[in-house]
Specification:
Bound molecules: 5-S-methyl-1-O-phosphono-5-thio-D-ribulose
Oligomer: single chain
Shape: globular
Number of helices: 11
Structural class: alpha/beta
Distance between the termini: 52 Å
Length: about 350
Amino acid sequence: MKFAEKPYKSLVADAAATRVHIVDQTLLPFAVEHRALANWQEVAEAIVNMRVRGAPLIGVTAAFGVALAMHEDATDASLAKCLRALEATRPTAVNLAWALARMASLLQPADPAERADLSWAEAERIRQDDVDINRRIGQHALALISSLYAKHQRPINILTHCNAGRMACVDWGTATAPLYLAQQGGIPIHVWVEETRPRNQGLITRWELADAGINCTYLADNAGGHLMQNGDVDLVFVGVDRVARNGDVANKIGTYLKALAAHDCSVPFYAFAPRSSIDVGLNIGVGVIPIESRSGDEVRLIRGIHRDGTIEEVRLLMPDAAVTNPGFDVTPARLITGLVTEDGIFAPAALAAALG
Ligand code: MRU
């Protein structure tokens, strides 16, 4: 089987050629194919079709989309058009709107002649900040792992859902950053990686962790509750796509069920939330955060790798079978032990006060 062997950078920006190079994540982990994005339309296509995915990476890529647009045509009309189109690509992860708002507030008052350079530099800052933010997030959460290790003196079992890893960000990942730091610090860990149907982003997480030599086991989504009930999970670490001021959290579909099981089994449940994922304008999340409804074909078909190394899709359900495919769900704050941000770990009830 031709599985990719080493992880690559999720996004590389080439200022000289005004190109953004991404790994096409629709093919992971079976093949690593790079794709050059040369204009904002290609950036929008990559986000819509999940060639780039994960809340922080969507924001970074969209920022470069604006920069590419400004290199082509820096007029007010062009700026407004690309901002509108990029914002419509995916609805749930607020990092997208956050990054576009940051680009807009810099570029709208600027002289069009300066917009190309300004926008590239700002997108680059957003890209670099992501690395530092995730490292800081990792350091805060490392304390959770090391204190449990000090108590139990055995490998700490952490369950994760979806991919909040390096490929969802620029580097480190959010929920995976403390895993790398634990490994570097010699703290033994074992990670339960959930499959995350229907797009199976758990495959990407497993690929990232296995490449780093982190002990991990892959499981079907529905096995998580059973493991928690049997005392096999010490901590649940998940990413987020949008956090409301009251601490409600939208993340990949299935997160809510993990949180319910964790609550029932008294397993601490942490959501990893960079500031760019916090929607400061939203007071509550349940019933309010827009939930992306994706194509039923993501459920009807499943992708894998054939014996001869080709990537194939096979059909689980006929095209006319009724299907629903919500991409995300919202976990209420009452089920969340803590929100791990770059500025520290907050109880959900303390988030609003911390935001000011
Ligand atoms: O649909 P995706 O793959 O973009 O969803 C990804 C997730 O839900 C992640 O958990 C979230 O974006 C956090 S990534 C640090």
